[in-house]
Amino acid sequence: MTERLLVIGGDAAGMTAASQARRLRDRADLEIVAVERGHFTSYSACGIPYYVGGDVADAGDLVARTPEEHRAKGIDVRPATEAVEIDTGRGRVRLRDLATGAETWEGYDRLVVATGSVPTRPDLPGADAEGVHGVQILDDGLAIRRVLERDRPARAVVVGGGYIGLEMAEALVKQGLNVSLVDGAEQPMRTLDPEMGALVADALRGIGVELHLGERVEGFETTGGRVTAVTTAERTLPADIVVLGLGVRPNVGLARAAGIEIGTVGGIVTDRRMRTGTDGVWAAGDCVQTRHLVSGEPVAIALGTHANKQGRVAGIDIGGGYATFPGVVGTAVSKVCHVEVARTGLNEREAAAAGFATVTATIESTTRAGYHPGATKIRARLVAERRSGRLLGGQIVGEEGAAKRIDGLAIALWNGMTVEQMTGLDLAYAPPFAPVWDPVLVAARKAAELVEKDLRS
Amino acid sequence: MTERLLVIGGDAAGMTAASQARRLRDRADLEIVAVERGHFTSYSACGIPYYVGGDVADAGDLVARTPEEHRAKGIDVRPATEAVEIDTGRGRVRLRDLATGAETWEGYDRLVVATGSVPTRPDLPGADAEGVHGVQILDDGLAIRRVLERDRPARAVVVGGGYIGLEMAEALVKQGLNVSLVDGAEQPMRTLDPEMGALVADALRGIGVELHLGERVEGFETTGGRVTAVTTAERTLPADIVVLGLGVRPNVGLARAAGIEIGTVGGIVTDRRMRTGTDGVWAAGDCVQTRHLVSGEPVAIALGTHANKQGRVAGIDIGGGYATFPGVVGTAVSKVCHVEVARTGLNEREAAAAGFATVTATIESTTRAGYHPGATKIRARLVAERRSGRLLGGQIVGEEGAAKRIDGLAIALWNGMTVEQMTGLDLAYAPPFAPVWDPVLVAARKAAELVEKDLRS
After folding, report:
1. CB under 8 Å to A16, separation ≥6 — which residues?
2. Are B65 and B79 a contacting pair, CB within 8 Å?
3. DSSP state of B207
4. Whose CA is closest to B81, among B56, B105, B99, B55?
């Protein structure tokens, strides 16, 4: 008998789950229906700033697979269709056709909830005015670029100094706007320790972004329903366009209403095979919470790479195979103009919050042998546990070729290595690629020395 | 009572050992004498091709620390001084002043043997002719560049297609020479599997190097003691200059004569603290053999990064601290013009020789998100053990930003990860740095699928 798999959400997690299930089970065995509120499937939300900034000419380039391509693979994709209710008892989902408003119930044997995240919108006067943009789905990117081309705004205010905020600030600078960035914290990128965050602030100022740190947004001035300025306690920043980069939270309304378990950090709870506690229901992507493998705590991190992996695991499980998603170590990377920034694991604040006593080493080195053309500065910071010397986290700020070294730290973390063990790692060396002591090794050495010094003290 | 540490060899291993010992023990406690045959200390031999090619203007840039700088740190460095005999019974070394020929005995309480390697010179007619250059010590690099500037040679033949051979071929192309490369093997870089080696051959041809693969050099034609051509069974290649890149072997004559144990692959045998079996004698760098952590076999790999690490471990041990050098996983990296090449662990041939049955996955991907400007092709190949799926090795060929990904594979190898475990790794993702599935993850996925398929077959 043919089973039916219903997937709610047509982006990374949902469509990867659908594709993997299709790879493992043929059409006679498994019918697959995927519904998506928007018009696009399988696109790179992380690519939106590069489309807005003009590095990517065509939004279509961000789409890995269109609904038509999915259909050709035997996945019945229905765009502009919203799931409005899950009835787990009867195994069905109420769908609304967003064009006509018509509603129907669609039955399922297996269900994947991949409803993504919702951007944080401040509960402040004017926050819903025209000209205040979130950056969440590809349609948001299209809307911003349309405004840039049509209205030629001159002044932009970006609210929030996380990854999306920084990337959008750079994109708007590239498009010739005068850009201010406001963040309530004293530094951009709070996932970095302050001294590393300061380097990112310098990079932003270097490309002409006016930073207002430690200032909370108190409201948005509007004229005729259009935003004209952003106000903080300290100042009024005139704005033709405002971009919100205040982070996101898991979009779990539908799941919660259906009685699917929501965890302590607001995401759907799953096991390592992405099964929810509800029979026949999997969840994957930004709407779930997962385990941080260093802190041991639940976390909800919205990131395309996690969504893809989780979708793959769910799809393989539905397809009858075996794969697991054990958790994350909090790796992230970004760049502001020529400055690359990366982090993994816990920073000092996060480590302290998880109850770790730490030793921290910061080093400066170069990406290539110092004498080799193109060598650029790199700063690396390692956080290690006192006594044990176990690596807890790492941060890197540098230029071309610096940031991807974070992968080595992420893999070392994943395997529970100590900084002393890391000093022996056989990393690739040749003058165009690294100094004879790779910066990762220099940092490990310094951290190991500090751990030992601390032991003796 | 003041002890005396004597170090034989003033490059990476020896001077790192001396520096670490000095860091941990002051002058009143430990006198340090280091002897070096050449004129330079602590230089980057790996940088020689970049000096010859002109990327590095001044040979002095390759020197990390001069004899004077070492002396200022309390290390009595004696250049142009050769150790000609070790008398372990009486704890003394016979030294020869290369300027005067005068010999003296120098006593030691602790001895570090860091005598490096000797280049393989073919036992063929004309191999010692003028114009046939090895690339071993910095003086060799100076000699080659002097010849290039003085004699303006037009035609070069490079013998040997390993790392040094390739890097020297490119350096000579950069200097405007017509370059041929001869290697007895069917591909350059035998440490790669043939299909990856073929990409390197293409890159060499792309910069104009004429390749003669599968051809053994049979001799060197000379006129008046100067080389004029290289002959193989198939042809005669006219040459104004010949560069040998035939690899090196540990330089252990001195140690062997002193009764210090030499191992099965020709290097000095040490424990993980770099202690030889002879009381009071440590060894480090190209002259030692070490353990390959994947094959479990002894190996002798001449590489500056190992020499530095081993020197550090020896110096810390002599200094009263504790550090170990557990072995290597065979990581190496190089580039030919814009093509980056890297490898770690075992290739298929090496894995088979070590008794492993393997599954191999090759994938093509891009260094950045496909739509991001600057994305370039990358090809990755993973060798995994059948059944267990344990990673045994990896190879990467690609362009800007490709090769350093080998570090992630090296760390995964180091920790004994399976390719299935690797599919979950939390690697850094953002469009300027990687596709949403990093090439390393794509390769791990494919390898994991092949391992599973093989299990079922």
Report:
1. A42, A284, A307, A308, A311, A312, A315
2. no
3. T
4. B99
Q: In a mutagenesis test of the B interface, which of A290, A368, A371, A453 is the best target, namely the one with the most B β-carbons within 10 Å?
A: A371
β-bridge mates for residue B383, sequence order: B360, B393
Q: Which of B262, A265, A2, A443 is nearest to A435 (CA)?
A: A443
Q: What is the pLDDT of residues B72-119, one digit of tens each?
A: 999 999 999 999 999 999 999 999 999 999 999 999 999 999 999 998
Q: Which amino acids of B are annotated catalytic?
A: 46
Distance CA(B153)–CA(B178), nearest Å, equals: 9
Comparing CB atoms, the residue among A335, A344, A371 nearest residue B47 is: A371
Provide mean pLDDT across the span A226-250. 96
Separation CA A265–CA A258 (nearest Å): 18
Distance CA A230, CA A455 (A): 51
Report how far residue A305's alpha carbon sits from residue A321's, in angstroms, rounded to the nearest whole number.
21
Is B380 in contact with B196 (CB distance < 8 Å)?
no
Closest CA to A194 of A397, A446, A377: A397
Distance CA B442, CA B446 (A): 6
Residue with tokens 């090769």: B403
Instruction: Specify whether the CB–CB gap between A106 and A33 falls below 8 A.
Output: yes
> Which of helix, strand or coil describes residue B256?
helix
CA angle B252/B253/B259 to nearest 5° reads 85
Distance CA A182, CA B80 (A): 63
Query: Which residue ranges form the domains of chain A, and what is each CATH number?
Result: 3-118+249-318 (3.50.50.60), 121-246 (3.50.50.60), 332-456 (3.50.50.60)
Nearest C-alpha in A relative to B345 = A426
A79 CB burial (10 A radius; 0-12, 13-18, 19+): middle
Q: List chain B residues with CB under 8 Å of A372.
A: 47, 50, 55-56
CB contact under 8 A, B426 and A410: yes
Single-letter amino acid code for the residue at A421: Q
Give the residue carrying structure tokens 């385990």. Answer: A291
Q: Tell me the shortest Cα–Cα distance from A216 to chain B, in angstroms.
A: 28
Yes or no: say if B61 and B15 are a contact pair by the CB < 8 Å rule. Answer: no
Of B329, B428, B445, the CB nearest to A426: B329
What residues pair up with B436 in beta bridges, in sequence order?
Answer: none
- Residue A453 makes CB contacts below 8 A (sequence gap 6+) with none
A207 near A173, Cβ under 8 Å?
yes
Residue type for B208, please? G
Residue A112: other Cβ atoms inside 10 A: 32
CA–CA separation, A265 vs B130, rounded Å? 74
CA nearest A290: which of A36, A321, A309? A309
Query: For residue B9, how far is the Cα from the chain centroid?
Result: 17
Cα–Cα nearest to A439, from A371, A385, A368: A368
Tell me which residue in A62, A303, A424 faces B326 most closely, judged by beta carbons.
A424
Tell me the per-residue pLDDT of B267-326, one tens digit each, with 9 for 90 and over.
999 999 999 999 999 999 999 999 999 999 999 999 999 999 999 999 999 999 999 999
Count CB-CB contacts under 10 A for residue A429: 23
Three-class HEC string of B142-203: HHHHHHHHHHCCCEEEEECCCHHHHHHHHHHHHCCCEEEEEECCCCCCCCCCHHHHHHHHHH
A-B interface: how many C-beta pairs under 8 angstroms? Answer: 204
Residue A119: what pLDDT? 87
Residues of B in contact with A332 (CB under 8 A): 428, 430
User: Are B34 and B41 in contact, with CB atoms under 8 Å apart?
Assistant: yes
Task: Decide if B404 and A452 are in contact by the 8 Å CB cutoff.
Answer: no
A187-209 per-position pLDDT tens digit: 999 999 999 999 999 999 999 99
B447: tokens are: 């390898």
Q: Is B274 left (phi over 0), alpha (psi -120 to 50) or beta?
A: left
